[in-house]
Amino acid sequence: MRILVFGAGSLGTLVGGLLASVHDVTLVARDPHAARVSAAGLDIIGAGSAHISPAATTTDTGHSADLALVTVKSFDTAAAADALADCDVDAVLSLQNGLTEETLASRLDAPVLAGTATYGARLVEPGRVECTGVGRIVLGALDGGPDPLAERVGKAFRDAGLNTLVATDMPRRRWEKLAVNAGINAVTALARVENGALAGDDAGELAHRAARETARVARLERVSLPNRVAREAVDRVVEKTAANRSSMLQDVAAEKRTEVDAINGAVVDIAADHDFEVPTNRTLAALLRAWERGAGLR
Ligand SMILES: NC(=O)C1=CN([C@@H]2O[C@H](COP(=O)(O)OP(=O)(O)OC[C@H]3O[C@@H](n4cnc5c(N)ncnc54)[C@H](OP(=O)(O)O)[C@@H]3O)[C@@H](O)[C@H]2O)C=CC1
Ligand SMILES: CC(C)(CO)C(=O)C(=O)O
């Protein structure tokens, strides 16, 4: 399969590098990373190690591929879609956090698959990516149900050794992940604590409230996600990732723009479409956006 990885930073470089063991992969990345991979190949370290030589470029238009994997940060999704519209790609799969697939689908003619990734990745330096945790990729039709394209992409991922599940219930999975991120990411980023600090704490109750609101909005969108399931998903992730610093906390610590717009902000926007109030998500989004403005990031 010819695979274009659009936005090869941490996650895209890891997944693209693993896929390159059996597929024809091109990483669309920034220099000096792209230049380093082109000149000397890519080192994958951490959980599993490999040296692999995918193509790499900074040019983001004019490509042709069977699949475009979108791994830019959520706030770059619209720009990525506009660049991909100038490419000839047969299918698109997002592995981003937050609700980004709708942005891709509204701007592209190619079919867009939904995906989630729990692999951990960190671009250590140009040409070197660390796998900080072997997780799982789950992908499937954006609206749910069986999908031959998702099956083909899933097989291509499994052929390359990636732990991959093709799911027929992506709407529920996306909203459950959104509920987890809306609760854990925002609260840990604002409180500057590891995920495990939410267990049995008032801040954990705040994360539960954000997740329950998200589940309610999912149901308004006709996605079956009971409040209890969203709350239990938060508890499960807090327990399993207790030592983790959430991606949003890492962004705040590094003074980088966060993905709040595609997480809590998306919950607020979709709730508004239904004339429904989500005060916890609204407050969390307002605080994170205020911090971003203060830091000159938006
Ligand atoms: N890292 C991880 O372990 C995981 C990440 N995710 C999700 O995956 C997504 C990506 O995260 P992550 O990999 O950490 O983010 P990164 O910022 O490391 O990677 C995104 C990369 O895309 C680059 N990029 C953006 N636009 C272009 C363009 N037009 N041409 C070339 N390169 C471009 C960015 O460069 P620049 O910054 O210069 O714009 C950046 O290097 C996020 O939604 C995240 O939540 C999900 C699970 C795990
Ligand atoms: C699951 C969780 C909360 C793990 O930290 C995550 O997805 C993130 O940090 O973005």
Automatic annotation (TrEMBL):
One annotated GO biological process: pantothenate biosynthetic process
Query: Record's PANTHER family?
Result: 2-DEHYDROPANTOATE 2-REDUCTASE (PTHR43765:SF2), 2-DEHYDROPANTOATE 2-REDUCTASE-RELATED (PTHR43765)
Instruction: Kindly tell me the pathway this chain contributes to.
Output: Cofactor biosynthesis; coenzyme A biosynthesis
Please list the reactions this protein catalyses: (R)-pantoate + NAD(+) = 2-dehydropantoate + NADH + H(+); (R)-pantoate + NADP(+) = 2-dehydropantoate + NADPH + H(+)
**InterPro entries cross-referenced by the UniProt entry:** 6-PGluconate_DH-like_C_sf, 6PGD_dom2, ApbA, Ketopantoate_reductase, KPA_reductase, KPR_N, NAD(P)-bd_dom_sf
User: Which UniProt keywords are present, listed alphabetically?
Assistant: Coenzyme A biosynthesis, NADP, Oxidoreductase
Give the EC number(s) listed in the UniProt record.
1.1.1.169
Q: What does this protein do?
A: Catalyzes the NADPH-dependent reduction of ketopantoate into pantoic acid. Catalyzes the NAD(P)H-dependent reduction of ketopantoate into pantoic acid.
User: Per UniProt, what is one GO molecular function of this protein?
Assistant: 2-dehydropantoate 2-reductase activity
The Ketopantoate reductase C-terminal domain extends over 171-290
- The main enzyme category here is oxidoreductase
UniProt name for this protein: 2-dehydropantoate 2-reductase
Looking at the record, the residues that make up the Ketopantoate reductase N-terminal domain are 3-143
Q: Which GO terms describe its cellular component?
A: cytoplasm
Q: Which family does it belong to?
A: Belongs to the ketopantoate reductase family.
